Amino acid sequence: MTDSIEKMIGDLDRLLPEDELVVIATELTAVPSFTGQETPLALQVQKTLADNGIHTFGQQVQPGRFQMIGLLGPLRGTPALMLNGHLDMDPLGRDHPEDPFTARRIGDQLFGAGLHNMKSGLAAMIGAAIAVHRSGIPLRQGLLLEFVVGELQGGVGTKHALGSGLTAAAAVVPEPYSVRRVITRTAGVHKFALVVRGRSAHTSRPDEGVDAIAVLRQVLDLLDAADIGLRNPDFPPLPRMQVASLLAGRGEGHDLSGISYCADKATALIDLRYPPPHEPEDVHAAIDAALDRLRPRFPTATIDLEHPVDPQFRVSGTDMPPMDMSPDCAVVRDIAELLPLVSDFDVEETGLALPYSYCGNDTTHLSRAGIECCLFGPRGTTPDTEHHVLISEMTACARTLAALAMRRCA
Residue 220's CB: how many other CB atoms inside 10 A? Predict the structure, then answer.
């Protein structure tokens, strides 16, 4: 271990105080950043980094929709390390506490909307960059920071960044799977719509209509029970289909007001998880083949597979295939060595970590661009994991990323 890393590790309490990291996370929590509405959070990230002397620039992914890029160290050459995290947050559920955008600390837990996925990871990235900058130790190679949009749409922001030429030798994405795990193998995510079109009729004359909802219900049950293949014994429950959003009504716009008439259009928005080594084209073909077997049962309705999904639903944008990288790659070994030096945690799992490896994330795009990468980020505890993060894990993640940056870049 070099003197510069030892010096930084010994000085982390001053370079990155825990209370300051909590403030950073609290400020991120205060800015709602639902998918498609990430720009205000990108600007908050820019302000925090700029206030700490770190250079940033924005990337416009779509008109009016910006993500933020930061860089420490040399402007020329390929950065040695990338930290990548997504700005977009999950929709709020019915069980979310009141005043969700005001962070609350209770012991080691920090509660707030979006902290779980993944504003605590963003705070760790920011904190790591600040610690590296404050150390005053010069970097021989760059540290690239990517705060991207649209990970929940398949990774449109990371794909945009890669397309613009941004790359690195290695990358860490601090998604919320615990600092006790360094994950390099994940499922693919295939988001599609299943659309049934029937014929509307008044409730007094039901035999004259074709109820799109009734047909869709049956089709979903049959599709869920169908064997579409796409298996891998390392990922035993996959493929797994989840239907979490349903729309139905009259006309192409699903008009909801005509409840005296049966629906003539019904749409299910579907998330299908599948294992490596299968690819998006394999998934699409398997689902289409299953539907071809089902369509003859419903001759009076049309059943369509729509991929990509209509942009109005904000659920897709690009394919997110599986990531399957060696659990013994160098960046995993570095994290496993550094984590116990800067915290009270140890890495307990590497590579495949179930059920967490059923996730989809931006490492798929980074790995396919030739970047050695992994998932390593802070998490909360049960039963309300979705609503908080452990401050100790967020601090451990930030300090490990800072030490990793120093090892890779200094």
Answer: 18
Instruction: Determine the residue type at 385.
Output: T
Tell me the β-bridge partners of 323: 186
- DSSP 8-state class, residue 255: B
CA-to-CA separations, 335 to 125, 172, 235, 258, in angstroms, rounded: 14, 10, 25, 58
Phi and psi dihedrals of 114, rounded to 5? 85, -10
Q: What is the 8-class DSSP label of residue 339?
A: H
Q: Which two tokens stand for residue 394?
A: 């967020």
The alpha carbon dihedral of 374, 144, 125, 340 has a sign of positive
Query: How many other C-beta atoms can be found within 10 angstroms of the C-beta atom of residue 255?
Result: 14
AA identity, residue 110: L
Q: How far apart are the first and last CA of the chain?
A: 12
- Residue partners of 376: CB distance under 8 A and separation at least 6: 172, 173, 174, 177, 179, 181, 182, 183, 335, 397, 400
Task: Give the model's pLDDT for residue 149.
Answer: 98
CA dist., res. 192 & res. 313, Å (int):
11
Strand partners, 181: 349
The residues facing 39 across adjacent strands are none
Angle at 395 between CA 392 and CA 397, to 5 degrees: 110
Residues in the chain predicted with pLDDT less than 70, given as ranges, are 1
Closest CA to 268 of 286, 242, 299, 240: 242
On whether the CB atoms of residues 329 and 226 are closer than 8 A, the answer is no
Closest by CA position to 96, among listed 108, 120, 112, 107: 112
Q: What DSSP letter does each residue of 83-109 carry, written as one string?
A: EEEE--BPPPPTTPPSSTTS-EEETTE
Rounded to whole angstroms, the Cα distance separating 273 from 364 reads 14
Side chain identity at residue 165, one-letter code: G
Cα separation, 39 vs 33, in Å, equals 8
Q: Phi-psi region for residue 349, left (φ > 0), alpha (ψ -120 to 50) or beta?
A: beta
Q: pLDDT tens, 77-95?
A: 999 999 999 999 999 988 7
The 8-class DSSP code of residue 328 comes to: T
